């Protein structure tokens, strides 16, 4: 069993979208290394369940309902953190959506707006709200994606928003220095709840993992082509996990 240090002892960390998946694991690790962690999600039920799981591991945790695209809820997240702990040392901007597998030139404007609002704009606005509270020696971590480097066919616009976060990180690193470090993490494919729209849909698996320029309607559910895909999915899945 890995023996963890206490690098974050006495630190206060906010992790957005942190009741499941990557965000939850980040919050958990920060907490196990000594941080007081503030987790958030759009749903109270998810917040309560995650708080209980982290508390059971001996972590000092505080949960707040927050949809990052909601200005009042973002402000409330920061305000409640300061009221509870009196300071802020770490922000992990993890919230993201991917509501479409449409080609970029076919995405409807409301969907395009949602991608930009949550994946990019909300990260900036959250940091605007939090900047005045960040301590000297504080840290901001922005979660991008491997899709930001080479956007796959079925996740093209999602990949573009993640590319934007790479640029945002560089710009903020210069702007927030020397008191705050700004770094970016770009995970590869992780089979979380967020990724179920990929792992649960063979058509999308083909588009994402093989980069085929296919239309989703080419192979209907129940067709002979579709029936062969379950045997191939574990192969593609393992290939991505090794990347």
Automatic annotation (TrEMBL):
InterPro entries: NAD(P)-bd_dom_sf (IPR036291), Sc_DH/Rdtase_CS (IPR020904), SDR_fam (IPR002347). SUPFAM superfamilies: NAD(P)-binding Rossmann-fold domains (SSF51735). One of its GO terms (molecular function) is oxidoreductase activity, acting on the CH-OH group of donors, NAD or NADP as acceptor. It comes from the Eukaryota. Gene3D superfamilies: NAD(P)-binding Rossmann-like Domain. Coiled coil: none annotated. Belongs to the short-chain dehydrogenases/reductases (SDR) family. PANTHER family: DEHYDROGENASE/REDUCTASE (SDR FAMILY) MEMBER 4, DEHYDROGENASE_REDUCTASE 4. This is Tropinone reductase-like 3 isoform X2. It comes from Nicotiana sylvestris. The gene is LOC104220534.
């Amino acid at each position: 069993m890995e023996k963890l240090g206490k690098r974050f002892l006495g630190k206060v960390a906010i992790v957005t979208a942190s009741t499941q998946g990557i965000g939850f694991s980040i919050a958990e690790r920060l907490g196990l290394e000594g941080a007081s962690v503030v987790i958030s999600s759009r749903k109270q039920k998810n917040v309560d369940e995650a708080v209980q799981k982290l508390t059971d591991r001996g972590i000092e945790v505080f949960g707040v309902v927050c949809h990052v695209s909601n200005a009042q809820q973002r402000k409330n997240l920061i305000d409640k953190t300061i009221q509870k702990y009196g300071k802020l040392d770490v922000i992990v901007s993890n919230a993201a959506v991917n509501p479409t597998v449409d080609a970029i030139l076919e995405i409807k404007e409301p969907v395009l707006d949602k991608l930009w609002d949550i994946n990019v704009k909300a990260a900036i606005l959250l940091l605007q709200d939090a900047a005045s509270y960040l301590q000297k020696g504080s840290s901001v971590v922005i979660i991008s994606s491997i899709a930001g480097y080479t956007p796959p066919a079925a996740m093209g616009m999602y990949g573009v928003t993640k590319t934007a976060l790479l640029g945002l990180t560089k710009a903020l690193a210069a702007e927030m220095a020397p008191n705050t470090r700004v770094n970016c993490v770009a995970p590869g494919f992780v089979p979380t709840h967020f990724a179920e729209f990929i792992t649960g849909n063979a058509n999308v698996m083909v588009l994402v993992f093989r980069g085929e320029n296919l239309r989703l309607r080419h192979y209907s559910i129940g067709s002979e082509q579709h029936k062969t895909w379950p045997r191939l999915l574990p192969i593609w899945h393992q290939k991505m996990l090794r990347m």
